Amino acid sequence: MSNGANRAVARPQLSLILALVAVSTLGACSGQGQRAHEPGDAVGLAAQQAQAREFAACMTEAGVAADVAPMEGDQRLVADFVSESVATVVWKTPDGYGGYTKGLLATPELEQQAEAALDELSKDRRQEYKLIVDGVDMSKEFEQCYESSGYTDPSRIADPRRELADKEAIVEASLRWAECARANGFPSTKDPIDPVADDYATRPTLTLPKDITAEELNKLLTSCPVWDESGPSDQAAPSIGFDVPGFDGNRGIDKLSRDEAAWYGQLLAQIQESAEATRPAGW
């Protein structure tokens, strides 16, 4: 969503520690019959550029100024909000990727408010588009513009080699943590799946039993710290989830009720808080 003019951050469930709950990619909204761009594919490139322009025009017509610019070292276009015209825009896409316009970086106070607003959007684990403009919810228009244009942010398409390397490191950390969980009262803890390069549509995630309580989880996090203090400071964090749809590293959160999704979201936040509180100094 950002070509560099604005502050954009990938927040899949706020941290690498957490299972990828709202597992989704913007590609799910690609236009019917449109060809994906590949190197040397002039037809696919033209289609991608048209989709980006259509998305920007749609958002501008909805009242939120947007424009397009080429990716660095690429002819594909990235749509972005015009930060000079609209300074109070905060957004999030279904895969947890979000950001805000650079006008909110003008002062430390504004940046703090923007980060808080983005954090608030990120707490919503549902696979939904979110857009807040000057405090007004324009999520419906945001989603409609994505769907009508078929636009997919090309800067969000992962390098498959880098993706596999990232996921392999997560698997290694997750296997270690799953073994500790089984040895500390949760023998049904499942190991993560083998990693695959799928533009982060899935995430190798160890899964705890779905009936674990908050108190049991707290004791387990004490027995099995998230971080391996004997390991390197740049180690990957384990991806910890639960044996329920959408919280196991795969799609499916829509199969849960709102209350169920909120409950497991609270447990994930508990894991996050524990990890931050026990992170070794200097890491």
Summarize this entry quickly.
The protein has helices at 42-61, 108-122, 139-149, 160-183, 214-223, 258-278; strands at residues 7-10, 66-70, 77-81, 89-92, 97-100, 130-133, 136-137, 206-208, 240-242. It is of the alpha+beta class and 283 residues long.
Describe the overall structure.
36% of the residues lie in helices and 12% in strands. By secondary structure, the protein is of the alpha+beta class. The strands form 3 sheets. The chain has a 5-stranded antiparallel sheet with strand order 1-5-4-6-7, with helices on both faces. A two-stranded antiparallel ribbon has the order 2-3. Helix 1 (42-61) runs antiparallel to helix 3 and helix 5 packs parallel to helix 6 (258-278).
Strand and helix order: EHEEEEHEEHHEHEH
Tell me the helix content.
25-40%
Number of strands: 9
Termini distance?
30 Å
Shape: globular
Give the helices and strands, then pairings.
Blueprint: E1 7-10, H1 42-61, E2 66-70, E3 77-81, E4 89-92, E5 97-100, H2 108-122, E6 130-133, E7 136-137, H3 139-149, H4 160-183, E8 206-208, H5 214-223, E9 240-242, H6 258-278
Parallel strand pairs: 8-9
Antiparallel strand pairs: 1-5, 2-3, 4-5, 4-6, 6-7
